[in-house]
Amino acid sequence: MTSSEGARPASAPASDPAAVADLGLVDGLAQLTFLVHGALAEIAARQDLSMIQVRLLGVLRDRAPAMRELGRLLGLDKSSVTGLVDRAQRRGLVVREASATDRRSYRVSATPAGRELAERVAAEFAGRIDAFAAALTGDERRLLAGLATRVVAADAHRHGVDLRPGGDLRPGGS
Predict the structure, then answer these.
(1) Rounded distance, CA 134 to CA 136, Å?
(2) Looking at the DSSP assignment, which residues form a beta bridge with residue 97?
(3) Continuous segment of H or E residues that includes residue 98
(4) Backbone angles phi and psi of 106, in degrees to 5
């Protein structure tokens, strides 16, 4: 038998997902990350958004952080946040308003157009995630969601970020 005999043609359906060997934690999470990132990148591109603009709109769905807090949450330095917000503001997706409590600080919030775009991206993304999770039972989906939440929350806590809607993003804020 030659090496190509018995090989599955590229157009043949993949094997039963349940029959695939366990990928392990590292490879499994890496492959899942690639799937999720690819889906979100595709959705973002269709909306003429960068991935960081999608993240910005996602953050602004439930809060209006100060520029410094926004940078911390997105993992960006001050000049990068300023450029990001400037570009989003030119598109009419966000506004900057002077903070009521600190005259030196500005808060960023989504405009109605920005919120509508964020909702549209989120809805399409939810559909893609549902398709990825189609092989899971309801209990497995809830378990995966709970585990993902714990991992993300633990990482946020290590970095002093409060993920609650409207949460205090300063170190130690809770």
Answers:
(1) 5
(2) 107
(3) strand 94-98
(4) -120, 140
- Pick from 105, 101, 37, 36: nearest CA to 66: 105
What rounded mean pLDDT belongs to the chain?
Answer: 86
Q: What is the pLDDT of residues 36-94, one digit of tens each?
A: 999 999 999 999 999 999 999 999 998 999 999 999 889 899 999 999 999 999 999 99
If we measure between CA atoms, which residue out of 41, 45, 22 comes closest to residue 33? 41
How many residues are recorded in the chain? 174
Q: Which amino acid is at 13?
A: P
Quickly tell me which residue has 């769905």 as its tokens: 61
Written as six digits, the tokens of 103 are: 């005259």
Q: Which residues contact 72 (CB under 8 A, 6 or more apart)?
A: 159, 161, 169
Domains of the chain, first to last: 25-131 (1.10.10.10)
Model pTM score? 0.77
